[in-house]
Structures are given as C-alpha cells and as structure tokens.
Amino acid sequence: MLRPMIFPSGFVTSRLRLRPIAAGDAEAIFAAYARDAEVTRYLTWRPHASLHETEAFVAASIDGPAHRTYVLTDPDGGSAFGAFDLRAPAAGHLSFGYVLARAHWGQGLMTEALTPVVRWALARPGIWRIGAVADIDNIASARVMQKAGLVREGILRRWLVHPSLSAAPRDCVSYAAVRD
Ligand SMILES: CC(C)(COP(=O)(O)OP(=O)(O)OC[C@H]1O[C@@H](n2cnc3c(N)ncnc32)[C@H](O)[C@@H]1OP(=O)(O)O)[C@@H](O)C(=O)NCCC(=O)NCCS
C-alpha cells in the first residue's frame, strides 16, 4: 500500500500557474489538446473522440492518495492548456507526466513547469528521487527533462504501450534527478 503523500496546492512561475485539476476543466482540455492526435502520439492514451471521454478522464485524474494532477494556466488563471501529473509510486520516489496543447509548444513552457517541481521535490525531506520516462522517439520530452536538470539513466526496453504507435510496449528512456 502506498503512503499518502502531501502534494503542494500549486506552483507559480513567471508564465504559468499549476493548480489541481477540477471537473470544470474538461471542456478546455478537450478543446485545447485531448482530441489532438499529434499531442497524444507518445502518450498512453488515444485522442478523445468526445467531450464525454474527457470528462471521464478528468474525473479519474482528480487527486488520489498517491498522485495529484495539476492543470497549466496563465499565471492569472484562465482556461487550462496543459497538465502535469505528479505521482508517488513508492516511498522516497516521485514520478511525473506532462502534456501541453500544441499551440504552446516550443516556448520553454514545460521546462518552466518542471523545473520548480524538481526543486520542490528534492528539497522535501524523505524524497530521494524524481524521474520519468519518455518514448524513445519523444525527443521534445527528453529535452525538457534534460533542461530541467534530470539526467538520462538509460533505456527501458519494451516499457510502455503508446497505443497511437503500437499495441506492443515500446522502448522508453528514463531520466531522473536524485538527492546525493
Ligand atoms: C513534450 C512537451 C510537453 C514539450 O513541451 P514544450 O513546452 O514545447 O517544451 P520546451 O519548449 O520546454 O522544450 C522542448 C525542447 O525540445 C526540442 N524539440 C522539440 N521537438 C524536437 C525534435 N523533433 N527534435 C529535436 N528537438 C526537439 C525543442 O527545440 C526544445 O529544446 P531547446 O529549448 O533546446 O530548443 C510537448 O511537446 C507536448 O506536450 N508533447 C505531447 C505530449 C507528450 O509527449 N508528453 C510527454 C510524454 S513523456
């Protein structure tokens, strides 16, 4: 059984606010990225065909004992254009996943979101590691982790199914930052 974990109520950077996802975010998420096959190419889920699917997805994303999903908005609030999922899969260890609407790619935004999360994690007593994996071909995600200070650890063979690409699990690259 995983230990309950206290996640921050949010993060704020110069261009972003991360706040916990809520049922009311479904419409913006569907419109901004959940139906975009380009966005979901390297994800574990397929593009949503309807708002109803996004509503169910958001409902399932709301806080559990071992994870919190944040949405990304402008610093002053407004509609969600991305999401950041922070997870505690084991004692002392955090992992994460993220997604951003295509209109916002290439501006350094996810690096800006990840960087304070990593800083928070490694300053928190009892957290020794924060890391994630990306599909072997997901160069942008690998670059985000590298820019946020995570170190490439190696390749996990046949690690995750990314259904837009293959029904078989694909090789993934693992990145992490650890406390010395
Ligand atoms: C991955 C993702 C979150 C990146 O967000 P972002 O805000 O655009 O990322 P950043 O702008 O901070 O950095 C992206 C980096 O990747 C680089 N990059 C992007 N596509 C690339 C490509 N095909 N080849 C080489 N570099 C690439 C960019 O040049 C940039 O690096 P730089 O700053 O050195 O130029 C975004 O592309 C996304 O949402 N993708 C779909 C969902 C996804 O794959 N999530 C991750 C699952 S592990």
TrEMBL record:
Annotated Gene Ontology cellular component terms: cytoplasm
Keyword Metal-binding: no
SUPFAM superfamilies: Acyl-CoA N-acyltransferases (Nat) (SSF55729)
Domain N-acetyltransferase: 16-172
Single GO molecular function: protein-N-terminal-alanine acetyltransferase activity
Pfam families: Acetyltransf_3
Keyword Transferase in record: yes
Domain of life of the organism encoding this protein: Bacteria
Keywords: Transferase
PANTHER family: FAMILY ACETYLTRANSFERASE, PUTATIVE (AFU_ORTHOLOGUE AFUA_7G00850)-RELATED (PTHR43441:SF2), RIBOSOMAL-PROTEIN-SERINE ACETYLTRANSFERASE (PTHR43441)
Protein name: RimJ/RimL family protein N-acetyltransferase
Lineage of the species this protein comes from: Bacteria, Pseudomonadati, Pseudomonadota, Alphaproteobacteria, Acetobacterales
